[in-house]
Design a protein that fits this description.
- This protein starts with 9 loop residues before the first strand and ends with a helix.
- The chain is 55% helix and 8% strand.
- It has a 3-stranded antiparallel β-sheet, covered by helices on one side. The protein has a two-stranded antiparallel sheet with strand order 2-5.
- The longest helix has 23 residues.
- By secondary structure, it is mainly α.
């Protein structure tokens, strides 16, 4: 058994949302601007905390980074088995994405599963949590993972949407860039597509009655980001 001290009032995915506001009462519902500012401040702090994590020395004796080519092949194979009609599109996506991910940019000690719900919030103070997938890899992978989850929670999105300008992602990237290192937009977008691909079967796993169309819509967006 593991025991952790309770921290904060929720996670970053709930800060500034209507769900959280309804729990806090009518006054919070009237203060949507304040809630948005709170979410932006917490997201910025999360980016700064992530940058600090990426500055830490490797936790392992060896810190060789493994390119994700094999993971891409496996993701395409597994997803194609669910929806064979998109196999050709997935292969084209894999071929276009793999060169972008071949070099890690800045390799670092990474969270491994970073998203807004992995950030606990207590006012202006935050904590990163759920570090069981912490490993050595491309720092931009954590940034792309965060963006991908916000994208999925914001679907449907227009094809020309600037996915890195979604509110929590934009503030988090600003906080991350305020540190001593950063990542290029090309790196972040590449890893965003990777993590969207990694989650492409989620509509099926969640038993969405429109899971086939949901997957196609998500694939449409991934292609628009890549090309």
């Amino acid at each position: 058994m593991q025991y952790f001290t309770w921290f904060g009032s929720g996670d970053l995915s709930t800060v500034g949302t209507s769900n959280q506001s309804s729990q806090l009462g009518a006054a919070a519902l009237r203060d949507t601007a304040g809630a948005g500012a709170e979410a932006a401040a917490a997201s910025y702090a999360a980016g700064m905390a992530l940058a600090l994590l990426h500055q830490q020395p490797p936790a392992f004796d060896t810190h060789r980074w493994r390119a994700p080519a094999g993971s891409l092949i496996n993701l395409v194979r597994e997803t194609s088995s669910l929806l064979p009609g998109i196999t050709d599109r997935l292969e084209r996506l894999r071929a276009g994405l793999e060169p972008r991910l071949r070099r890690p940019g800045r390799a670092a000690l990474i969270h491994g599963d970073f998203s807004a719900d992995q950030v606990l919030v207590d006012g202006s103070d935050i904590r990163l949590t759920d570090l069981e997938r912490c490993t050595y890899g491309a720092g931009a992978s954590d940034l792309g993972s965060f963006a991908a989850v916000e994208i999925l929670h914001s679907m449907p999105l227009a094809g020309d949407t600037d996915v890195l300008a979604l509110p929590r992602t934009a503030a988090m990237l600003d906080g991350y860039s305020a540190g001593p290192t950063g990542a290029t937009e090309t790196e972040v977008l590449g890893w965003t597509i990777f993590h969207l691909l990694n989650r492409l079967s989620e509509p099926f796993r969640s038993c969405s009655p429109t899971w086939r169309q949901d997957m196609v819509n998500q694939l449409d967006l991934m292609e628009n980001i890549l090309w």
